[in-house]
Amino acid sequence: MARYILLSTLTVEGRQSLHSRPERLIEVDKEIEKMGVKVIAQYAVLGAYDFVSIVDAPDNETIAHLSVDLGSRGTVQIMTLPAIPLERFEEALKGPHQLGRGTAPTTRRTGRSTSRR
What we know:
Elements: E1 2-10, H1 12-20, H2 24-34, E2 38-44, E3 51-57, H3 60-71, E4 76-83, H4 86-94
Antiparallel strand pairs: 1-3, 1-4, 2-3
C-alpha cells in the first residue's frame, strides 16, 4: 500500500454539516475504509487547511477516485500528496540512476556574451 497525505478544506456546506453533526468525521472515515483506503491518522489544523489526513491506499487510481468522490459532495476540497518514506527516498538517491552524480556543474565558455541587447 502507498501512503498519501490529504489536505482538506471544508466548504461553507461542509462547515455547516460538521457543526450540526460532528459525528460525521467518523462516518466519513468508515466510508473511506470501504473504498480500501486505511486512515492512519487525522488532525484538525489551523491555517490554510482544516484537516490533515494520513492514509494508505492500494494505488494512485484508488486515492484519485476517493478524492473525486469526496469532493463531488460539495462539502470539501482536497489536495492529495503522495508520501515517500525517507528510507525509500534515501535508497533512490543512492541508486545507480542519477543525473550528474559525482560531477561538478559545467559551465559553457564560448568567449561570447550570452546577454541580448
